[in-house]
Design goal:
Blueprint lengths: L1 H22 L6 H32 L2 H28 L2 H24 L5 H30 L4 H30 L1 H22 L17 H14 L1 H30 L5 H25 L6 H20 L4 H29 L5 H30 L1 H22 L1 H4 L3
């Protein structure tokens, strides 16, 4: 009787905490604010780190090939260990996993900053530490993505995902600019040291956040399973659940075409349109600006936006004709409104999916699903960039942009017909 009473009391407490999290505004949710600030700081530091490390490699070796080794190291680790990390996130306390990941990366990145401060540092040491940083970071991503529903509840998930999307784009715009200034003024070691400091602050904020309002439900009566069984269960879940399978296929597909095509638009701006630096800068800002506008609109409309799954698929379909139209433009200035609209549609084709995943996927499986999504979306863009850049050198950027737009239009129409689970999402 005492055990039953204790269980009922715990369930009531969990329900109350869940209801509180879902009814309080995300901006009054102390836990969300701490986690949101932690994420934003970590992302800002990463932009500094990326610029500083790439410049250090170029300045010390003069080799773009060696610079690509650093990028490939990150991508390979993300691809190989994404599902592994997602499974781990579902088996342990996600908040603990996040702050441990940040603490480990603080130590590793501080070591990188110290090494590059001294001359004649073997490049292999930097690659090794970079690989370890990537390995530690791959655990944080699915833990963070899956923890949002624990922090704000399903009712506030649109607001939370929208806020994170806006922060992500603003920081990427400002972070690279500030990182470049920091490198020019103080050197690469200083910029990387800033990255290390942000990881430390991020870990502290996660500790300040306290325990998340409720944990992913666990059946205590269920026999404990091994890590291998949980890993397999994650793949089986994605395969058997129509929505999860459709989302895991759709997101890498969108990333593949969008990022690869936008890279060709940049090439076209320089080689064909001969865009002035100011116009090129405006073009670079159009995608994140359109994305932010789209995310704000999604946040404001929230559940008033009906048939959200159809909005997602139609956004992908409409990006195709826009890419074709951009390939026919005679100048970068004329293409700016279309590029802004592409950024807006890109927001609808991705943000809503990330919201839907947290609503449709069981909380106890979200780490594995987001781990798999992260692995696939990390490898799709580089493959697309390699293929599209090769074809662009052979046939010209405008031809490949038009071909990509046509392919995206066709793939969008096929997705609309086949991914009925996404189409049905309200």
């Amino acid at each position: 009787m005492l055990e039953i009473a204790k269980s009922a009391k715990d369930d009531a407490k969990t329900t109350a905490l869940t209801n509180d999290a879902s009814t309080v505004s995300i901006w009054r949710n102390r836990t969300f604010l701490a986690v949101f600030s932690s994420y934003s700081l970590s992302l800002l530091g990463n932009t500094f780190h990326s610029i500083a490390l790439n410049l250090w490699v170029l300045q010390t070796t003069g080799s773009a090939k060696l610079m690509s080794v650093v990028l490939i190291t990150h991508l390979v680790i993300s691809m190989l260990f994404g599902s592994f990390a997602g499974t781990f996130a579902d088996r342990t306390d996600r908040r603990t996993l996040m702050w441990v990941s940040d603490a480990v990366r603080f130590v590793l990145v501080a070591a990188i900053a110290l090494l590059i401060y001294f001359p004649n540092v073997p490049f292999a040491y930097i690659v090794l530490l970079t690989g370890l940083v990537a390995f530690a970071g791959v655990f944080r991503t699915p833990a963070f993505q899956a923890s949002l529903v624990e922090i704000v509840g399903k009712e506030q998930i649109t607001q939370a995902v929208g806020a994170i999307s806006i922060s992500d784009n603003i920081i990427r715009i400002s972070g690279f600019a500030l990182g470049g200034i920091a490198v020019a003024a103080f050197g690469g070691a200083f910029a990387i040291a800033i990255d290390a400091a942000t990881f430390l602050l991020s870990a502290i904020l996660l500790l300040v956040a306290g325990k998340f309002p409720y944990q992913a439900s666990k059946d205590e009566a269920k026999a404990k399973t091994s890590f291998k069984e949980d890993l397999k269960a994650g793949f089986c879940y994605v395969w058997r659940k129509p929505f999860a399978k459709a989302a895991v296929l759709l997101l890498p597909l969108v990333m593949f075409f969008f990022l690869s095509t936008f890279m060709l638009i940049q090439v076209m701006a320089v080689k064909v349109w001969h865009a002035q630096p100011f116009v090129f800068g405006l073009m670079e800002a159009c995608i994140p600006l359109g994305y932010v506008i789209g995310s704000i609109l999604i946040m404001r409309l929230d559940t008033r936006l009906k048939s959200r799954g159809k909005w997602t698929l139609w956004s992908m379909i409409l990006m195709g004709p826009l890419f074709i139209a951009i390939s026919l433009m005679s100048s970068a200035s004329a293409a700016l409104p279309l590029i802004l609209l592409v950024g807006f549609l890109f927001s609808f084709s991705t943000t809503i999916i990330f919201i839907a995943l947290r609503v449709a996927v069981e909380p106890s499986m979200q780490g594995r699903v987001f781990g798999l999504v992260g692995a696939l979306t990390s490898v799709a863009p580089p493959i697309g960039l390699a293929v599209f850049s090769t074809l662009s050198d052979l046939y010209g950027p405008s031809v490949i942009i038009a071909a990509s737009g046509t392919a995206m239009l066709l793939m969008g129409m096929i997705s609309y017909r086949r991914f009925t689970a996404i189409r049905a999402f309200q």
